[in-house]
Amino acid sequence: MATPTPARRPLMAGNWKMNLNHREANLLIQKLAASLNEKQLTDVETVVLPPYTDLRTVQTLVDGDKLLIGYGAQDLSPHKGGAYTGEISAALLTALGCTYVVVGHSERRTYHHEDDALVNAKAKAALASELTPIVCVGEGLDIREQDGQVAYVRGQLDGSLAGLTAEQVAKLVVAYEPVWAIGTGKTATPENAQEVCGAIRQRLAEVHGQETADQVRVLYGGSVKAANIAAIMAQPDVDGALVGGASLDAEEFAQICRFPEHIAR
Ligand SMILES: O=C(CO)COP(=O)(O)O
């Protein structure tokens, strides 16, 4: 008899992007902590990804009040340290208690010309420091209009995860964020999300084996809100969400993290 697949714990990660200073971060974390009880924070892993300048504040709150809220950064340098003006290394992030880091967000790929090779180097730098990379992939509107999303995302995934062992892949998170759905209010349908998240898991299984693929959490991102999270989470290969705009409102993000209650209703 096949061993049952261990359940993947849902993960809701709030990408604040370039929003909220450290005082505003303080307020949002306090409100979030007040809106979610211990069971909710145990059932669904809740993570915030603030700007670098907020990380010390978030660390102080999380440590001081023993909050069950994880945190991390939105990017990191592929280099270990040294003369790289303006960059932040994995070691600087782990020193602040970060456990996650986003790599290859479409805004970095577009505005900073980051390619799969650089995303791959960043994922490796994160893993070498015990940080969990959230590796972002996703097609633009032109590719979606030609129905090329699956092939495109498979290519991005192969490039971004090149040279990683199955053991390393099992530890990371992949986020599927169709570029046309980011900040536009156009959410992919739950079926659109499942098609590509399922294809991501299938590709991971082809390269690293089914057992590894079954451990990887695959998130959907793009105009996720409290109103659409339950339908997205009902898809078998979607294990959570990478939330932008809606994560800046503590109550909205808390409602997203409480999605099992929306499903039960
Ligand atoms: O880019 C995103 C998260 O990383 C999605 O942003 P929105 O939720 O604002 O569409």
TrEMBL record:
Substrate binds at N15, W16, K17, G183, S223, G244, G245. Involved in the gluconeogenesis. Catalyzes stereospecifically the conversion of dihydroxyacetone phosphate (DHAP) to D-glyceraldehyde-3-phosphate (G3P). Belongs to the triosephosphate isomerase family. This is Triosephosphate isomerase. Coiled coil: none annotated. Its EC number is 5.3.1.1. One of its GO terms (molecular function) is isomerase activity. The gene is tpiA.
